[in-house]
Amino acid sequence: MTCAHCGKPLTYNELGLNKKYNGAKDGALCLGCLAQKLDVPQERLLEKIAEFLRAGCLLFVENS
Ligand SMILES: [Zn+2]
To answer: Which residues surround ligand 1, an ion (CB under 5 A)?
Structure first.
């Protein structure tokens, strides 16, 4: 699976973020492209991954 925008290979956590924040109708996006689309800093998305991890969300893993 690669980013629909820039073609970068996607990590497991990036796919998880797409399930949470991107309707996936346009294809999955990498962290950088998803941050641009959502107009938030990449750091914010990384924080969200950490939050979902702490909540036990199975869409994310440590050190993906
Ligand atoms: Zn991308």
So the answer is: 3, 5-6, 8, 30, 33
In a domain, 45, yes or no: yes
Can you read off the two tokens belonging to residue 56? 């036990």
Q: Compute the distance from residue 2 Cα to the ligand 1 centre, in Å.
A: 8
Range(s) of the domain holding residue 16: 12-54
Could you give the angle at which helices 12-21 and 31-38 cross, rounded to 10 degrees? 20
- pTM reported for the whole predicted model: 0.89
Residue 1 scores a pLDDT above 80:
yes
